[in-house]
Amino acid sequence: MSKSLTNHMNTLLSKAIKLMAEYDDELLAEWNQVKDDLVEINDRYIESCEFIIDRLNTYMLASRYGVEAPAILSRMREDALEYFAYQPAAEKIIHLLNLLENATHTVLKRHIEFSSKLHPSIHYLFTKLSEVLVNLNTEDEMNLDKLCESLIQNTNLTIDWIARIEEQPDCFSVKKVHGKIGKIKREGYSTWYDILNTFGVDHSTLPVTYENELLLIGCENAFLHETMSMLFSLIDQHEKSYSTQWKDAVILFNEWIIKSQTLEQSCENICYGFGEFLPFERSALFRFSNMEQMAIGLYAHHLDKDEVKAIREQMIDIPAIQHKLNLLKPVGHTMRNFQPIYIEDAAYGFPEKVVKQFNLASMIIVPIYVPEEGQMIGGVLLDQGPGKHFPIDRTLFPALMKFGQSAGELMLRYIKPDYVNTGTDVREGVSFSPREIEIIKLLAEGASTTEAAVKLYLSEYTVRDYISTIMKRLNAKNRTEVAVKAIRMGVIE
After folding, report:
1. CA separation (Å) from 350 to 293, 313, 368?
2. Averaged pLDDT for residues 358-382
3. CATH number at residue 68
């Protein structure tokens, strides 16, 4: 990357942090509300959320004193390396950062007109934070040292010490020793055998190769077999947690869909991309309309496209999805959980005619969403072929979530014209953003343009623009008709 481009991207990051610092108190309150909602649903990643919020708050303050974005990202890595014993699950980090990014946009929209224009800098910042936090494994020192310390501290194991041995150009050396062991020579070993003899390798010392090093593990002889079993299980789990192959799939998917020029091409490329770059055989893209009360088929891959496009199902008739969607909406806050939904058996909770028509068994439902709006606009159904059952594979979740986000950003370019009434049933294809719903509620309460602007921290011009757009979508002649139609459709109560 050229120096000028590097400087420009760093300027974007600094701009985002400084902008956030202007509203730090409100942001902290909004972020803490996200954390409180996680507490309410007993989310086991509350501590990770607390860590990210605490660090973001610290960095916002640091930006006031001239600390630049690259230094802040570097500090985030250092703090994370010190805080986390293991690499946090990538899908959870992405999920938490999506929630916090959405909360950030919520605050900015209260103060800044056309805040969506600020979306690239804010989104870029959270993207870089995601890269830092899901790729801590690129620092080998952190990986292995944290692993060794956690193994020694594990009360289920009986490990007294672990020595890290590495190969030098002309000899072998002891890189580091964890735990308690007598004084030993650190370097100058000609062969592995010299090292083994120095450590007195016997039946209570376990040699294990890990990446490009040898780990010598001192444990009690009586529990050697159990220790070995647990040890290799933990190391295998440790290695899997650092797998980042999903990023390659995301790059390929984004490069594939970016060439789309129309909504039809977007739908086709999205369906193909889900099936081509991930281990799934069939995919079907749906749009959720009328406040997610209806699923409308848009396109399919390795399924009959016309049959999928003919689908118009009320969500209430698909309890398997309806129940999961309800779980994605914690009470008391606008946060949304955009994690994939696993359906073990479609026979339980899907319309029988649909199950038979497409021979459905196990499936994954991937939300198609736009984090900036906290809005889910559709979903992709994935399976591994007709009648095939398969277990859930959570290592795919990071890629699935990123696919869903990229697909949502793309579809939003073309999906807005579908909101406008074309003379058919006004209920079909109408959807509203959270901000539009707030305005509709105020109209129903009889608020004037000025009153709505004050309550929503918007200009009167912006509110009038929103109202005009809403009236066109509902084919309403006046504000009263907007309220009546919105209530009839179930948009507001």
Report:
1. 15, 10, 20
2. 86
3. 1.10.490
